[in-house]
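Tutorial, part two.
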Amino acid sequence: MKKNRNWLAAFIVVPLALAGCTATSGDTMTAASAEIVIALVTHGSPGDTFWDVVKSGAEQAGTDLGVTVTYQGDGDPVKQSQLIDAAIATNPDGLIVSMANPDGVQNAVEKAVAAGIPVITINSGLDQSKEFGAQTHIGQSEFIAGQGAGEQLAVAGVSNVICIIHEAGNTGLEERCDGAADTLGGTVSNVQVDVANIADAQNTIKSSLLADSSIDGVLTLNPGIAVAASQAIEEAASTAQLATFDVSSDVTQLILDGKILFAVDQQPYSQGYLPVAFLTLQARNGDVVGGGLPVYSGPGFVTKDNADQVAKFAKNGTR
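Running the prediction step on this input gives:
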């Protein structure tokens, strides 16, 4: 009986020892996973509400997947290219880049591809993404999204729109205005402002409305500019209807208040989260997602019908 008890004890210890080995192995795998580094370089300025959401999505993906995500951003294509070059020098396992000015960052992106670093583009630069060697693009077709905005404005009876471009040289913003002009069936005039100076942007929009009382629609391309436009419309005592691209807690509230018709939502959180997930899959399992084609994160439309639901997520900083 004593021998049997010793045998039984040994039988129990073996699985426990094996279980300990399994736990150690799991810890090792977690540590190895943490060595995966993915660099994100955008054209977003620090503190920009939209890019804060993109960054938040990328960082959450890093936390969820146990990988390191670095983030840098600059709206100047020369400086953005320098940031991309600096990221390349660290030899990351993947690189995520937005291309508001594709020609301005082309050399840097192609340099990363030539170095064997998997590249995914996000947000802007869909048309050039594959040409520059990126594996896929995550975002929306800005022209198609603009067409959708134009259709919605036309349904609302709008025929003379000013389209507010807040970043000079950003081809994606121009495509949004072009798309709206394609489907509105009326007039779309581009007005340039600077997103870094909201007060001046508000005054410029107000002046445009006061100068032409036939303007019955304002299309903004940024949440902060949308808020400024709403105030400009009130100050100008204009009856122009306002629509915007991109979502924030302020925008969803203005939609609920009836001061914004709709917001075109490209889901920036997904634009941060998904490329980190895709590149992590590639590093760990050799999966290459996209097949050279874009993965669309939008457009969706936030209206009074669904703004309440979206507002809950916007308050969390994820929409």
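The two ends are 68 Å apart (CA to CA). In part three we will examine how such features are distributed along the chain.
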